[in-house]
Structure formats: C-alpha cells, structure tokens
Design brief:
single chain; 98 residues; elongated; two-stranded antiparallel sheet
Length: 98
C-alpha cells in the first residue's frame, strides 16, 4: 500500500514538472505525457471472486493464453475458459475459436 502511494506521488510530481517546463512546446504533447504519467497502474492479471481478468493480449487467443498462464499448473474446463474470454469483451465465436 505504501509503495502504491509513493508511485502515485512520484507520478504527480513528474506531471507538475512537465506542466511547468512545457512553455513554448506543443500543449497536446505535454498533455499526453502527463496523462501517461497519471494513468492508473493495474496488475497484468488478477482474480476477483474466482474469475480471472487479464490485461495481456490484443486478441481472444492471446487473452485465453494469458488466463491459462495465470492458472498454471491447474487446469480449466473448456466452457469456463470460453466464458472467461467472453468476459473480456469478445464475441461467442471469437471465444470458441480461441
């Protein structure tokens, strides 16, 4: 918890430094830098109420592999894996193919 507070505080301080030093530069570029620093940091994967959510993967197969990687060496039923992939916003067909 303390480390999270320190990281957030450091991000805020760096954002203030960018804001003060951006005189004469492109405002959109400075805004992008500040937004990148202030973006919330999430773990790559986490388990909530027995359901696995992952930030890994840009496609349904990559999300499925990320979920399987989290539960390794345990196994997961095919139907449960399909439901997990669908919870990440993919359609029934994409989840079945993955």
């Amino acid at each position: 918890m303390d480390a999270s507070a320190v990281v957030s505080l450091c991000s805020w301080i760096l954002s203030e430094m960018v804001r003060f030093s951006q005189k004469g530069l492109d405002l959109a570029e400075a805004n992008d830098a500040v937004e990148g620093l202030m973006r919330r940091k999430f773990p790559l994967s986490e388990e909530i109420d027995g359901r696995i959510y992952t930030q890994i993967g840009d496609s349904a197969p990559e999300v499925a592999l990320g979920i399987l990687d989290v539960i390794y060496p345990k196994r997961m039923a095919k139907d449960e894996l399909i439901e997990s992939v669908k919870r990440h916003g993919y359609t029934d067909n994409n989840a079945n193919v993955a």
